[in-house]
Amino acid sequence: METSQITFGDLSFDINKPFARGAISTDHLGKWNGNQVIFKVILDTLDENIVDEILKEFDILSRYRHQNIVVFYGVSSELSGPPVIVSEHADCGSLASVCIIGIHQ
Prior knowledge:
Shape: globular
Radius of gyration: 14 Å
Oligomer: single chain
Strand content: 25-35%
Largest sheet: 5 strands, antiparallel
Order of helices and strands: EEEHEEH
């Protein structure tokens, strides 16, 4: 897989304070490499096959670079912590808040 591996110890966020919770992950605002980013922490209740599928999806998404697509920076998949996908922080919020609800800055 071509994903960029990120060391879990380099991530700075409070794992006990997610701002969003989904079926397979919690989302946290934090810092990585001096930038404000989003951490998608994959729940440990998922089986290994699902985690592998999530990492494959990340691998595909990480290849795209466009001003209108959130940048995916890397994955932390070390044994010292849960799998974490690190992506760009979008000031406007989620895609739903921008497209469906119509919130714009």
